[in-house]
Amino acid sequence: MKNFLISALSLLFASAFSLTGQGNDSSEGYVRPSDPAVLEKLDKWQDLKFGVLLHWGIYSVPGIVESWNLCNEDWIVRPEGSTYEGYKQWYWGLSKEFNPVGFNPEQWADVFADAGMKYVIFTTKHHDGFCMFDSEYTDFTVAKAGPFADNPKKDIAKYVFEAFRPKGFMIGAYFSKPDWHCEWFWNPYYATPRRGINYKPEMHPDWWEKYVTFTKNQLGEITGGRYGKLDILWLDGGWIRGDQVGLDDVLPEARRVSPGLICVDRTIQGPNENYRTPEQSVPATQLKYPWESCMTLGTDWGWTPNPRFKSARRIIGTLAEITAKGGCMVLGVGPTPEGIIEEKAVVILQEIGDWLRRCGESLYGTRITDNYNDGNIWFNASKDGRTLYAVYALPDGETLPAELAWTGNLPSRGKVTILNTGRKVRATVKDGKVSLKLPAGLPQEPIALKFEM
């Protein structure tokens, strides 16, 4: 029996760790959910188009990239002169310094609702293993490990979700399947040379079984009802499959508590990847299955000092492209070490929200249309197909042209509404081509148009 178990585990891991997690631009491997409640929730999620992904943890204290400096791979950059073991001990010690006394999830919810975002995904645990919820299965949690453990809001995930629900957000929980702090993933008997487990599971099946149990227990804490109903379970760390760590056992109970729960075992093709998640990129072509580009407002997922943020114009243009290609955008914004959204980010998000209040009809609730792009113009259709929308994505550093022109997607009777101002204008339609002179005085921003075919 032991030899059989070892052989089975060996085959399982040989196949699992050979996966690259690539192929997000292909429909191959996408498995349409069979649960009607999941399909209904996916359809509602596809209406939302714009969400926020919140990375926040002990890495926010010094303002460094989340978790990855713990991983001993050749692309990692640590401070000159540091040793690997010394750096790890310093990083783990940040748990004693994390004390976000300004933690204000209501401010977060206000900022992101004002920005026109419709769903939130909060990082309950990143690869470093530090839990942003009160887990009973580890002491490496904000609720136990540092000075914030005495704060009434120490169970941070609870207060984040409670702040966003009243504003109508879909609620998502990010969870890392790998946990580099857990001894049953990176066992202290061995070195930690890579991101995966640092031992052969066929040699230590008892260690791996303990890790599976640990992960199932934590997933059960998050999805079992303590944090209310969830809409999305967003699992990261694609070098470990969800079904390897007990996801197939957790999901039925999770969906009993939260009917229609969308599962995103990201980069793992199969029935537990209900939508795809290309990172920091937009697919080259239109995709006809559910997907989401996860992108950052700045250069990093978490908060870093003096960040270089993308402009509101660029975010809107990218959102228009993503929507025309059939996807949603979740934008990464990192709260500060004190627990607020910094003012520089708020200003950009306010500009995005102002545009969406006037022009959001061109994106929210739309679906793809076959002729979806012409130059900087991106097209969507209403669900009934009767109304078409076009968004001219004005690039950074450029001013609006005097005229917009495209091929196909011909407006009925040449009538077009500019959603930015509500002004109706007439387009010229000739030989399958459309030209539209823009009125003088329009704001220098992406232009959204509405017309019937």
Description:
The chain is of the alpha/beta class. 26% of the residues lie in helices and 17% in strands. The protein is built from nine helices and 16 strands. The chain has helices at 2-16, 36-48, 84-93, 105-114, 156-164, 205-223, 247-257, 312-324, 343-359, and strands spanning 50-54, 119-125, 170-176, 232-236, 262-265, 292-296, 328-332, 373-374, 377-381, 387-392, 403-407, 415-418, 423-426, 428-430, 433-437, 447-452. Strand 9 (377-381) and strand 10 form a beta hairpin. Helix 8 (312-324) packs across helix 9 (343-359). It starts with a helix and ends with a strand. The model is unreliable at 1-26 (pLDDT under 50).
Topology diagram in text:
Blueprint lengths: L1 H15 L19 H13 L1 E5 L29 H10 L11 H10 L4 E7 L30 H9 L5 E7 L28 H19 L8 E5 L10 H11 L4 E4 L26 E5 L15 H13 L3 E5 L10 H17 L13 E2 L2 E5 L5 E6 L10 E5 L7 E4 L4 E4 L1 E3 L2 E5 L9 E6 L1
Parallel strand pairs: 1-2, 1-7, 2-3, 3-4, 4-5, 6-7
Antiparallel strand pairs: 8-9, 9-10, 10-16, 11-15, 12-13, 12-16, 14-15
Helix pairs in contact: 4-5, 4-9, 6-7, 8-9
